[in-house]
Design a protein that fits this description.
72% of the residues lie in helices and 0% in strands. The chain is built from 5 helices and no strands. Helix 1 packs antiparallel against helix 2, helix 1 packs parallel to helix 3 and helix 4 packs antiparallel against helix 5. The longest helix is centred in the last third of the chain and has 48 residues. The radius of gyration is 32 Å and the shape is elongated. The two termini are 36 Å apart.
């Protein structure tokens, strides 16, 4: 059973290697030919090269085929390949990152800060004889601050989710551009 699984895994790895080589050869030939009609002729030649060797069974012949085709790819590799502008390494990659959409935090303008300063002033004015009343004061502090803290945490989470979604969309767009 283990040998069958190994053979299946080996076939799948070999299949991916051949597909990757085929795709690299096609993209490389597209870098050399601007005219799609000329490139199409080159692409059919590459396809014929792979089709002619599709039925190889001997592992040494397969290895030789892959080695010679990799050597052909290395020899014909374009010195300045076309990179889509928005793809990593492209001319527009992260050139104009959009500015943040949220408003800047103004520490002076928010009412929460005035409430916090008032509460802190009350805490500083506490003396040892007012300790019994401090529990009620602390409860009022928590009741005043809790909605603001929860609201701020929810806003931060929504911003993180939006940034993550935008980043994932950009990555998928780049993947489509590369493929």
């Amino acid at each position: 059973m283990a040998t069958a699984a190994f053979a299946s895994a080996a076939r799948e790895a070999h299949k991916r290697q051949v597909q990757s080589l085929y795709k690299r050869l096609l993209k490389n030939s597209l870098d050399w030919h601007i005219n799609r009609e000329i490139w199409r002729e080159e692409a059919t030649q590459i396809r014929a090269h792979f089709e002619a060797n599709k039925r190889l069974q001997n592992p040494r012949e397969i290895a030789l085929f892959l080695h010679t085709t990799e050597a052909m790819y290395a020899e014909m590799r374009h010195p300045d390949p076309v990179i889509p502008p928005g793809a990593p390494g492209g001319t527009k990659w992260e050139r104009n990152i959009p500015p943040p959409t949220e408003e800047p935090w103004d520490h002076e303008a928010h009412e929460e800060h005035a409430e916090i300063d008032e509460i802190l002033g009350e805490l500083k004015s506490l003396t040892s004889d007012k300790v019994d009343g401090s529990l009620a004061l602390l409860e009022s502090i928590v009741n005043k601050l809790e909605p603001a803290v929860v609201q701020e945490a929810e806003r931060s989470q929504m911003e993180e989710d939006a940034l993550l979604a935008a980043h994932e969309a950009k990555l998928s767009e780049n993947d489509r551009a590369i493929s």
